[in-house]
Every structure is written in C-alpha cells, then in structure tokens.
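User: quick one, sequence for these tokens?
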C-alpha cells in the first residue's frame, strides 16, 4: 500500500502538535493560571457596558411600562418574544454536543463540549429575562411557579406559557448540573497547580476530588445519568416553546410542523453560535492543536445538514398552505414573502438556506474565516426567522381595519443589544476563570491516540497469506 493510501485511511488526529499529557495540561490550565491576554480587559469592559445598557433598559421598562416598546394592536408580541425564542434556540447546541454525542461515543466532541455547555447556560440566562419583563408587572412572576396548595394559587397548567416556565427551568437546571459535573476533575487540576486563595476557591468547587478509582467510577456514572436526562430535553424544550404558537388558532401559527421545525432551527442556530465563539477563541488562545480543523469541519457538516432541514421546513410550510386551501393561511404566507416585511423574510431565506450551501465544498469546511462568516449569517437569519414568524403573523389580522405595523423603538433595539452584552460578559468571565476545554476528556482521547500510534501496524493481507502457506 502506498504512503498516500495509508494516509487516506488513517484516522484524523483529534490532538495535534505532538502533545503529551504534561504539555496539554500546561496549555489548557495555563490559560486560567496566567494573566489574561491584553485584549481581554477592553473586551470585558465593552461587553460589560453593553450589558449595563440592557439592565438599565429593563429597569426603565419596569418603572415606566411596556409602552416604551413598539408593541401595539395587533402586534402584541415583537422584539421581546423574538429574543426569547432566539436565545433558547442558541442554548440547544450545548446539550446536543455534550449529551447526545457523548451517548453516541463521538470522541471529537471532547474539545468543544465545554464551549457549548457554557454557551447554553448563558443563553438560558438571556432568554429567561425576556418573558419576565414582558409581563409588565415583574414582581408577580411567582404566580407562574407551582406554589404550595396552602396559598390557594394555582397556575394555569393548560397554558403553553406555563409549560415554558417548567421546560426552561428544567433545562437550565440539568444543563448547569451537567456542566458542573464535567468541570470537577479540571477544577481539581487547577487546585493542585495553584496556591493561596485561588487554591482554596478552586478546592471548594472541586468537592474534594482526588482522582481515585472510586471517584472516577462515581463521576462516570453521574455523567452518564445526566447525559441520559439531558438528551430528551434537547427535543422537549424547544418543542414546548413552539407550542406557544402552535396551540393558537392564528393563521401562520396553528400548525403541527412547528415542534420539529423549531428543534431543527434551534440546533442550527446553536451550532452557528458555537462556531462564532469558538473560532476566535481558538485563534486568540492558541488552541489549534486541541480544536483542530477536523472538529470545525464536523461542525460545518452538521450546520449544513440542519440548514437543509430548516430549508425543507420552509418549503413544506408553503406546500401545506397551498394544499390546505385555507384562504387566510395562504394570505399569511403570501404576505410574509411579498408584504411590507418581505425584506425580513428574504433575509431569513438567504442567510439560513443559501449561505450554508457553501459547505458542500471542502475548502469552506476547512477555512476558519469562511466558517466564521457563514456562522454570522446563520445567527442573523435565525433571529429574523423568529421575527418573521411572530410579527408577520400578527400585523395583519382578519379585518383590514385591524391591520397595523410594528416599528421598534430605541428601547427595543437597546434591549436586544444589551442581551448580547450580558451573554458576552458571562462568556468572557468563563474564558478567564474556567478551563475552556474539557481537559480530563481530551486526555482520554490523547491516550487512545498515543496507544494507536505506538501499536504495531497490522500485517499486509499478502504477507498473511504467504505466512499461512509457509
């Protein structure tokens, strides 16, 4: 067999650069132990300022009322619920990469799962903010919580908004536990490499981890159980979010395609955000040996596959509307494509359906800046998808006398920007104080890789036949 043929059959390296256990630990743990790079503090201050704007807008809204938004009749939902559904979708890739790929024993997930898990938590924080401030009277949010019967206050469990509270809170809790359990061995590594106050803080969160056989056994059982719990949440959470629309009788919303459609879109947007965050971090922190082009290429393939699913859903929506023969449904979808908000609809189609098609070509799948550009387009397109579903279905009612246009106010725009500020601030804190790569899991992959490299290659079939004849 020629050398080129052997190389083509060789498995791709998940850890490159000839890394050893010691050099891998120094690379990942050193990012937490050393001073942050020069760009970190200006980036943190900028994102913190943007987050402050978001918090200030929330306070202004609560003190003044929801009239500071551009909401009107008939558009009672707009930027606020658009942002809520967008951020919930962003959080889906973390659980998918961590839980589902773990259960399917996909080793390439180990270098990127902690990025995705952290992103999930921060996206859920951003998402949870919008339904609360949308209530107007935020201090009454506890009416949504299942309270003891002694209070004689019963939430309406037949409401899809109540289902949202249960689903999102469950998803956030399980995702936090899953992320934290996976962190424990790496926190113990940082504890053993530092001293003073930092050692005490990391030691506290490491929960007395010593790396004994018993600790590893209990850890693996807990991690497997949490992965099993988190897996159905990937499907259930955004399915329940879609019920906010699917259980309504409004044309454009009342459709059974929404649950799988929303789940596919959530995974699509989540993977795009992982690429958006991971590609710059990989470059700035020198993680090219750990987050290789093979990892990025796999994620590009998933992004293309889910993009095809989303495009198929767009086509099915149009076909079912035509086939159903309902005049109101047909007008709603015709209005989306050719009405006053047609620019938003075609932005959505261009970004979500057309831009991922470049990943059919290997050059785009292995060129980081091209992947980063596509991920930005997908993030924009997925936000506009939620905007199109919500606003264009509401702004023209059954009667032309009830029609109205939604125009966002400066408070709407500032709160959207502020949610990104909160997200980026939390993510920068994560990069500074937590190992951004699952060190213990990557070492397991490195162990298998080194064993495979040191193993003797199998004999050629011709030599085996010759040996059998002799």
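Assistant:
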């Amino acid at each position: 067999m020629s050398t080129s043929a052997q190389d083509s059959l060789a498995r791709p390296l998940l850890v490159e650069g000839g890394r050893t256990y010691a050099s891998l630990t120094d690379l990942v743990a050193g990012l937490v132990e050393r001073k942050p790079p020069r760009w970190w503090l200006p980036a943190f201050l900028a994102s913190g300022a943007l987050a402050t704007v978001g918090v200030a807008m929330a306070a202004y809204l609560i003190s003044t009322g929801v009239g500071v938004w551009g909401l009107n009749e008939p558009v009672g939902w707009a930027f606020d619920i658009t942002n809520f559904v967008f951020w919930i979708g962003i959080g889906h890739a973390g659980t998918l990469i961590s839980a589902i790929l773990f259960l399917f024993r996909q080793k390439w997930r180990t270098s990127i799962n902690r990025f995705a898990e952290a992103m999930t938590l921060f996206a859920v924080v951003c998402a949870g903010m919008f339904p609360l401030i949308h209530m107007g009277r935020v201090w009454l949010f506890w009416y949504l919580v299942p309270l003891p019967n002694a209070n004689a206050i019963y939430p309406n469990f037949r409401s899809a908004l109540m289902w949202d509270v249960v689903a999102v809170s469950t998803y956030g809790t399980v995702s936090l536990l899953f992320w934290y359990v996976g962190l424990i061995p790496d926190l113990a590594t940082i504890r053993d490499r530092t001293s003073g106050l930092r050692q005490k803080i990391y030691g506290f969160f490491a929960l007395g981890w010593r790396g004994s056989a018993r600790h590893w056994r209990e850890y693996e059982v807990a991690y497997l159980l949490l992965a099993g719990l988190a897996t159905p949440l990937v499907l259930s959470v955004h399915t329940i979010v879609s019920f906010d629309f699917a259980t309504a009788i409004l044309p454009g919303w009342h459709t059974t395609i929404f649950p799988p459609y929303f789940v596919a879109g959530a995974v699509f947007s989540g993977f795009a955000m992982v690429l958006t965050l991971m590609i710059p971090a990989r470059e700035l922190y020198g993680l090219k040996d750990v987050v290789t082009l093979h990892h990025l290429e796999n994620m590009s393939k998933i992004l293309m596959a889910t993009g095809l699913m989303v495009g198929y859903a767009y086509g099915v929506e149009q076909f079912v509307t035509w086939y159903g023969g309902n005049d109101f449904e047909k007008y709603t979808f015709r209005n989306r494509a050719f009405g006053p908000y047609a620019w938003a609809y075609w932005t959505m189609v261009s970004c979500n359906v057309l831009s991922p098609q470049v990943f059919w070509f290997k050059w785009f799948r292995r060129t980081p800046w091209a992947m980063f550009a596509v991920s930005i387009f997908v993030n924009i397109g997925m936000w506009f998808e939620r905007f199109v579903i919500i606003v264009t279905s509401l702004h023209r009612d059954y009667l032309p006398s009830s029609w109205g246009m939604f125009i966002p106010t400066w408070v709407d725009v500032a709160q959207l920007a502020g949610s990104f500020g909160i997200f980026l601030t939390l993510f920068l804190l994560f990069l500074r104080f937590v190992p951004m790569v699952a060190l213990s899991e990557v070492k397991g992959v490195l162990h298998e890789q080194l064993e495979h490299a040191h193993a003797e290659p199998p004999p050629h079939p011709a030599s085996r036949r010759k040996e059998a004849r002799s």
